[in-house]
Design goal:
- A seven-stranded mixed beta sheet has the order 4-5-6-17-9-19-8. Strands 16-10-18 form a three-stranded antiparallel beta sheet.
- The protein has eight helices and 19 strands.
- The protein is an alpha+beta fold.
- The chain starts with 16 loop residues before the first strand and ends in an 18-residue tail after the last helix.
Length: about 400
């Protein structure tokens, strides 16, 4: 039998099927390819085009304005009023799960733009407890709603050097923006150095901080953000090291950030400061102790020899950057929101998304001046006791299997 002569005719919107005519008579529907076939190029995602960009008013600008030095402002942590079981917040949730025992929780079904005050208080308490909380596809949580929620938690922070939105009146919003043609900066910074808590050089560094992705790489396209729990970092230390660090303070400096802006020809809106903070602080909501240290802004430990200070900084850098159990990694989607407690988390962006635009807006409120309370508790010890788990052996005498 001679093969049929077929003339394809597309008969539906689906590219998977076609209607064909055979010289043997009649029509038939045949697949153009397997219905299960997908387009896939390993390690590559096509970049989105932005010819008519809906967030044009939130593009970054660097206005030439000057601000007075910050002074201390009252702060009352809303998380203290939250329900310990988070029942107001979770009443609206359809799903909630932790990324790991130490840090990171994702909630579905909650609209951040429509929270009641009791839900906001629960949210603050949950963020202080879990370090960072993720919400997907928050389309209603526009920049005005984001600022309104931030203002509920406290006075909004204005950054002295980074970009703000093009739209006037949003100088308390920090813009994260990398366009499609930006040069990859991974060679400029050591990976450890990229870990930081935001603006810890301020006299009242932020607590509750939200970041919303407006546009970014597609799934698998890079640009993830990582967070590290400073509760858990503190708990990794021996009791002797904990006691030693609890008596120390560290200097946090804005000078490098200001110098970078000057070199780039951008304004410095407030004079850079160097502020002394305790190396271990206590969270007023949870009562848990945490490190208050980050590679980005801590320049020295006060009152000890430089060699000793440098050694401690290297050691704490290594813990924060390499202890996987204290990390959570979030793969962003459009309109996703992360809400974290800047007092108890470090975070780091990741590279590897060249060719894609990555645009986000951040809002943060000032917290209390960092304080160490010797009556504070260990997160790990408290939770292990609550759930009947054995306390962690830190001297190496009790052996266990190595995990792959």
């Amino acid at each position: 039998m001679a093969p049929s002569l077929e003339e394809p005719v597309i008969v539906s919107d689906s590219p998977l099927y076609r209607k064909t005519f055979s010289t043997e008579g009649g029509f038939k529907i045949v697949p153009t390819k397997s219905a299960n076939a997908v387009e896939y190029e390993p390690g590559y995602n096509a970049a989105e085009t932005h010819e008519r960009y809906e967030y044009e008013d939130l593009r970054p600008v660097f206005p030439e304005i000057r601000w007075e030095p910050l002074t201390e402002v009252p702060y009352h942590d809303k998380g203290i009023q939250g329900d310990p079981r988070f029942r107001h917040l979770l009443n609206a949730a359809t799903d909630v799960f932790d990324y790991n025992p130490k840090i990171g929780t994702e909630i579905h079904g909650v609209n951040l733009a429509n929270l009641t005050d009791p839900q906001k208080n629960d949210l603050a308490r949950l963020i202080a407890t879990r370090g960072v909380v993720f919400f997907r596809n928050q389309t209603d949580f526009h920049i005005d709603a984001q600022r309104e929620l931030g203002q509920y938690f406290g006075k909004l922070h204005k950054h002295a050097t980074t970009s703000v939105p093009k739209r006037p009146g949003l100088e308390d919003v920090h813009v994260v923006f990398t366009d499609e043609k930006a040069r990859d900066q991974r060679a400029v910074f050591a990976p450890t150095f990229l870990w930081h808590s935001d603006v810890t050089y301020e006299i009242q560094p932020p607590s509750y901080t939200s970041l919303k992705i407006l546009s970014g790489p597609p799934r698998g396209g890079g640009g993830d953000t990582l967070w590290a729990s400073q509760y858990a970092a503190y708990d990794l230390l021996s009791s002797n090291m904990q006691t030693y660090l609890e008596g120390l303070t560290a200097l946090h400096s804005a000078q490098m950030q200001a110098d970078g802006s000057i070199v780039a020809g951008r304004p410095v809106r407030r004079d850079p400061v160097v502020t002394e903070h305790p190396l271990v602080r206590t969270n007023p909501v949870t009562g848990w102790k945490s490190l208050f240290f980050n590679p980005g802004f801590v320049t020295s430990i006060v009152g000890i020899p430089k060699a000793e200070s440098d050694a401690i900084i290297r050691y704490l850098n290594e813990i924060i950057a390499t202890a996987q159990e204290i990390h959570v990694r979030f793969q962003w989607g459009k309109n996703d929101v992360a809400f974290w407690d800047n007092r108890v988390c470090n975070h780091s962006a990741s590279y590897g998304f060249a060719g894609h635009r990555r645009h986000a807006v951040r809002v943060a409120c000032h917290a209390e001046r960092p304080v160490f309370d010797p009556q504070g508790r260990s997160q790990e010890e408290e939770l292990n006791a609550r759930h009947g788990l054995p306390q962690v052996d830190k001297d190496g005498t009790r052996q266990s299997n190595y995990n792959d």
